[in-house]
Amino acid sequence: MNICIVGLGLLGGSFALGLKQLPYHYHFIGVDNNPEHAAKALELGLVDEISDLEAGVKKADLTVLAVPVNALIAMLNPVLDMLPEKATLIDFGSTKELICGVVQNNPKRAQFVAVHPIAGTENSGPEAAFAGLLPRKIMIICDKEKSRPESVKLVEDIFRQLDMRLSYMPADSHDLHLAYVSHLSHISSFALGATVLEKEKDEENIFNMAGSGFSSTVRLAKSSPEMWAPIFTQNSRNISAALDSYIRKLQEFKNMIDNQDEAASFELMKKTNDIRRILSGIDQ
Amino acid sequence: MNICIVGLGLLGGSFALGLKQLPYHYHFIGVDNNPEHAAKALELGLVDEISDLEAGVKKADLTVLAVPVNALIAMLNPVLDMLPEKATLIDFGSTKELICGVVQNNPKRAQFVAVHPIAGTENSGPEAAFAGLLPRKIMIICDKEKSRPESVKLVEDIFRQLDMRLSYMPADSHDLHLAYVSHLSHISSFALGATVLEKEKDEENIFNMAGSGFSSTVRLAKSSPEMWAPIFTQNSRNISAALDSYIRKLQEFKNMIDNQDEAASFELMKKTNDIRRILSGIDQ
Fold first, then answer.
1. Could A229 and B253 be called an inter-chain contact, meaning their C-beta atoms sit closer than 8 Å?
2. Mean local confidence (pLDDT), A49-54
3. Spans of all domains in chain B
4. A213 pLDDT band (50/70/90 cuts)?
5. How many CB atoms lie within 10 A of CB A204?
6. I need a surface site. Which of A63, A256, A260, B202 has the fewest CB within 10 A?
């Protein structure tokens, strides 16, 4: 079976590497508009050959679009149009509502399955890919009923081979949940990094004091702006509401601190400690 | 040499464990107002004996106060008053201005050295202690000129035995820097956790989606309210200013997202990516 991976970065590369460790015979065709990334991906063994987009898609049983969400919007219909009749198309985008929207009237819509692996790191590019990224993580499949059963089954089988846990939800629910649990985390981290960089002109101070929790809280501020700026645009309505809630919560917390209301801030933190129980079992 | 550790939690316990791995002969006397913590600390080998406060301090060449900062404020003068003439007192508090303020007129002020190890985890209690917490981390020594040279030398020698890196600053600068790099991180993380817990009533959703960055950004929201509520009170002026800057930055970011101004949000994130270079060499 031929799998064409468009976008040879962290997610696309890790998907291929994860499958290559298993006893199945997939042939990976890589497509990347950055020739250095393509060459690197071949050198690192993420894919077995490099191709241009159309030739790759034409040869593949499964095409995976693992590109930033703005590129996804531009590519989805053209790639669907060139997709062989028996083939299946998936995307790995972090937004789903707009993506499902742009293909809704495409005659080949049923050959497309909208998915999102809940996995990532702050690193990007082919060198960031590693076989262990996807196994045991959640794969969300959106609007499954709009995809033909054989395409859904194909991708479900592959995700299960990768030992991923499948979760199903409508595209709009996906975007709402992701706004809170993923997109807001990235914004809070970027804003924290930006605030500290502005105030602490002495880099040595930042480095020296980062031991006390800063480095983990700000980790996501190392993430790729190329990937994230379009996500924030595409999910702006949900993110805006999530940010409003977050800013209100910070303001509430600040009022407690300003008023030296230690009982109230204690209570807020004690309740929030419940996150330890909920996340128990997740590393880092 | 006898070292009395008051507060047998993460920091006090890790300080003792770190020193116990070295070829020096320290005898550790443990003091804790929680009898279970005291018994656990003895059982885990953090200390060699358990004592009440006064007997422990009287026997020690060095007393370490590793208790929450509200307890510190209450204990500092009484402990200084009972400190033997040749002995030295240090504290590990995350605030320094108020702490140095309350002892400023104590006749034994020069026997006190105000220090703060820039190290911690989200865990607390004697079981959370580990020998590797302090080595290679920063130890800040505040208002060194107010301590007698032999006391400063004693603690510098011990911190160097622990392979810590020493940094010197006035107590007010310490509190200003820590507000941005440590205290703000904790507040941003607690507020993020609180926001998500309020919005996502389905814990399964939080758990499932936490892979995408949430778990590291929210890690500090597992921290001890007993420790943090009094820190926020004692450093409220600096924290309030830091929170104002952070909320303004979030509002600025939100406006970019609301206006779909991708160029501006891209630019903000690109600049903030510099945090990767600054923090390179620090894990997580």
1. no
2. 98
3. 2-169, 174-279
4. confident
5. 10
6. B202
The pLDDT-based confidence of A282 (bands split at 50, 70, 90) is low
Mean pLDDT of the region A31-50: 97
Check if A107 contacts B (Cβ < 8 Å).
Answer: no
The Cα of A26 is separated from the nearest Cα of chain B by a number of Å equal to 27
Using the beta-carbon criterion (under 8 Å), do A253 and B120 form an inter-chain contact? Answer: no
- Residues B94 and B123 sit within 8 Å (Cβ to Cβ): no
In tens, the pLDDT along B114-162 reads: 999 999 888 999 999 999 999 999 999 999 999 999 999 999 999 999 9
Interface predicted TM-score (ipTM):
0.91
Q: Which of A113, A230, A276, A14 is nearest to B210 (CA)?
A: A276
**Check: CATH 2.60.40.1930 for A2-169?**
no
Nearest to A207 among B192, B266, B278 (CB): B278
Say if B2-169 and B174-279 have the same CATH topology: no
Condensed to tens digits (0 to 9), the pLDDT of residues A192-208 reads: 999 999 998 888 888 88
**Probe site for chain B from A137, A197, A269 (most B CB atoms < 10 A):** A269
Which of B250, B253, B259, B273 best tests the A interface by mutation, with the highest count of A CBs <10 A?
Answer: B250
CATH number of A174-279: 1.10.3660.10
* B254 → closest Cβ in A137, A200, A240: A240
Distance from the B6 Cα atom to the nearest Cα atom in chain A, whole angstroms: 21
Residues 6+ positions from A3 with CB-CB distance below 8 Å: A16, A19, A26, A27, A28, A29, A60, A61, A62, A63, A64
Which of A264, A267, A255, A260 is closest to B233 using CA atoms?
Answer: A260
**β-bridge pairing A88-91 and A112-118:** parallel
